[in-house]
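Exam revision sheet. Question 4 asks you to relate a sequence to its structure. Input first:
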Amino acid sequence: MVAVLLGGRVAVVTGGSRGVGKGVALELGAAGATVYLTGRRAGRAAEAAAEVDAAGGRGVAVACNHRDDAAVGALFDQVAAEQGRLDLLVNNVYDSAGSARWLGRPFWEVGPEGWDHTFAVGVRSHYVASAFAAPLLFASGGGLVVNVSSPGAARYMHNVVYGVAKAAVDRMTSDMAVDLADKGVAVVSIWPGLVDTELLQAVPRGADGRRLLVLPGEGEFDLDRAETPRFAGRAVVALAADPGVAARSGRAFRVAELASEYGFTDVDGTIPEGTP
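Answer key, structure tokens:
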């Protein structure tokens, strides 16, 4: 990535202190952007912001619980006060660790607690952040909203509530695009594949030397073939730098598909294709 590709741009990445969000924040920093990244733990967010600085951008850590609307509003007030503009919002926050307890369970075992938990963090939080961000994006003369979604929006993955939540995110993308059509702001969903996040890096190697992730009812997945978090970040940079991104507004795209179209790779120079 060219260090000045997004020079002068201001971005917010929710859930940017680890996982896919951190990978996105780092790639935006490497492209020269100022990145506000949120995390529930101030120390972890600060560490990620320092890595954004080291990558060539400017990282700003904001401790934020995305269940707290007032805290989310304060985040965007801070961006407005310090930058006076916003060019990019990446809605990524999701409680992967907290949701792991329901992996592979039928809906009657997930129950209302699983539904409320998944929708509060993985759907409602995206809506709330977008609503607070919209006036700043308008004031900047346009911009981009990226919703991090999943192939689970289109086929069964993990459990019923996960798929319904991801389908809701993609429908939100589609419908927001209608509202934003005359505002100069594009909105897209991206679908990472299997991503080797910090959570999955704890999976040990077996006797055969492989790190296998076993998902109940879905099979075994070789984590050495998984995407890095920065692969999705490179997709976001490519979208943000594309002057014709409005033509994509309202749709969902696999990260690997965007890599083929825009010509970027993962950090090892490959385009991972073998992940779900």
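Marking note for examiners. The mean pLDDT is 91.
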